[in-house]
From TrEMBL:
The keyword Kinase does not apply. Keywords: 4Fe-4S, Iron, Iron-sulfur, Metal-binding. This is 4Fe-4S ferredoxin. Residues 1-29, 31-64 form the 4Fe-4S ferredoxin-type domain.
Length: 82
């Protein structure tokens, strides 16, 4: 699954630079995650880095974008090959 940022986001700016795929960007009110670029850090790290640095724990799995570990790894390969 891709991750998502909930309304609890305080716009602290710590998640965006931690994303190795550039999937996090400022939205209209809070940061947003592009599900087409989010691999939950599969291929880069053992755990999603944005979740590790988020001080308010507002980055859960996005139930609207379910993906297996293999699908996330394939997405990682496509993203890093570009």
């Amino acid at each position: 699954m891709a991750l998502m940022i909930t309304d609890e986001c305080i716009n602290c700016d710590v998640c965006e630079p931690e994303c190795p795929n550039g999937a996090i960007s400022p939205g209209e009110e809070i940061y947003v995650i592009d599900p087409n670029l989010c691999t939950e850090c599969v291929g880069h790290y053992d755990e999603p880095q944005c979740q590790q640095v988020c001080p308010v724990d507002c980055i859960p799995l996005d139930p609207g974008h379910r993906e297996t570990h293999d699908e996330l790894m394939e997405k990682y390969r496509i993203i890093t090959a570009a």
